[in-house]
Specification:
single chain; about 160 residues; mainly beta; Immunoglobulin-like; 5-stranded mixed β-sheet; 5-stranded antiparallel β-sheet; 10 strands; signal; Lipoprotein
Length: about 160
């Protein structure tokens, strides 16, 4: 029975992971460019501090979209997206290890005109330690500031008992 339950959980996890694909350029219609840059990653990934940034984008009926993972060794992603239709943008961080896990992100909707060049700078805000306590997404079109959006962090602290 336990093996059956484990198999069902693994199957469900595989199906859910397979639902989100890489972001691909639209095959027709007007386009705009979106660049996402995550700043202030922890300098080194380790077992006690793993950080992944995620950029998810989709149109209203989710017939187009996908997700891109951003890490400290590849913090920038640029892609052509459909112009002239409202898209949902989600930029967030998932962090964990060493007795804690944390997440912080922002979600917004926007319609880009054809030929637009949107730059999303997603800054991770830290206090004294490695934990991310907040995040800020700043949107630019060229050099023009469009807006700044703040996200709050949700941190779960674990008490870890070392067993060996």
């Amino acid at each position: 029975m336990k093996l059956h339950r484990l198999f069902l959980i693994c199957l469900l996890a595989a199906l859910l992971c397979g639902c989100v694909g890489k972001i691909t350029a639209p095959t027709s219609g007007p386009t705009a460019r979106v660049t996402v840059e995550v700043t202030n990653f922890a300098p080194n990934r380790s077992l006690v501090n793993v950080e992944n940034g995620y950029f998810t984008i989709s149109n209203a009926d989710e017939s187009w979209g996908g997700q891109q993972i951003l890490q400290n060794d590849s913090p920038t992603f640029s892609q052509l997206v459909p112009a002239g239709e409202e898209l949902t943008y989600i930029v967030h961080l998932m962090q964990g290890g060493g007795g804690f896990s944390s997440t912080c992100g922002v979600k917004f909707q926007m319609t880009l005109p054809q030929g637009a060049d949107l730059h999303i700078k997603f800054e991770l805000v830290r206090d004294q330690g490695p934990e991310v306590i907040g995040c800020v997404a700043t949107l630019y079109s060229g050099d023009k500031l469009i807006g700044t959006y703040k996200g709050s962090s949700s941190i779960t602290v674990y008490k870890v008992k070392w067993v060996y």
